[in-house]
Amino acid sequence: MSSDTTDITSPVLSARNRLMATGRYLGDSSISDKVQWVREGHGHVLALLPIAEDRPDATAADSCPVEADLDFVQRPLSPQCATLSAIARIDREDFWLTSDGGYQGPNSVWKEFLQVKPSCALTDPGSQTVPSDFGIILQTLQKITDKCVTPGYTAGRSFFSPSDDSPTRFKLRHKLFEGLDADLEYDDEFDRPSTDAFSMERWPLTKEKNRAELIALKPTHRILPIPAYDVAGDLIKPSAYRRSLQDAIVEVHFTMSHWGIAKAKRDVYGGEIHLIRVLVPPSGPSRIERKRRIPLHIEIDELPPRKKCSV
Known about the structure:
- This protein is an alpha+beta fold and 311 residues long.
- Helices cover 14% and strands 25% of the residues.
- Strands 1, 2, 3, 4, 5, 6, 7, 8, 11, 12 and 13 form an eleven-stranded mixed beta sheet that branches.
- The radius of gyration is 23 Å and the shape is globular.
- About 8% of the residues have low confidence.
């Protein structure tokens, strides 16, 4: 086995074994029987089915409620949000997981900066050296979404693509802003100096003209970096999101929600990124992304280097 193959196989298999042991890995189809949709506001969130063993004082009798434990029967455990996991490749084409989601100003998708949610599509890792669970992952996600269907509604295209009938990818997004807690007087984690790489003042933007709109949110909101970590376990800086994540093989953890659009009679499902861990970095920039390097000095009698023509 070559060193390149080992570099891919080792972290992916290690992650798969670790995630499989958690019971929340979508490559194990039985996870669909351990979750339920629960009402939250006008929609639903995916939660773990409560089990008796979750209680600190649980006993063997709790797994089968009897009359002696009526309190447990009448007041079931509060549902715990289900954080699912998968191993996938971040799609190169359907990639908007940048510092501002490509926001260029108010438009039909984002009416204001506050609404922006960077997103990406997850697809088959495509490695020949590691058995892929991605087909099972998609089937399990379909079983989960089928549990929450509004009668008379059709499924929207916000989660699976290109279609719900034959998906090859699923989409996740990141909530970029969070409202400040009025009761919290001081939080040194988010009270960043303007020189910090994660501050609003230095946050990378697609269009610098939108800086004022971003800064205007500072009194009421904090900006949330994408919880994405490189192979060394370090938080990836906003300026490096594209080169570090696009086309990378990753371990991703996320939660799910559902809501209905009454006017269009459509069910919509959303996946919110909880954590991304890069297992195999992108192989390198595409031909389009390679930049020509201009030397700072040349000798007068030196000929320019030969350049290969792409065909």
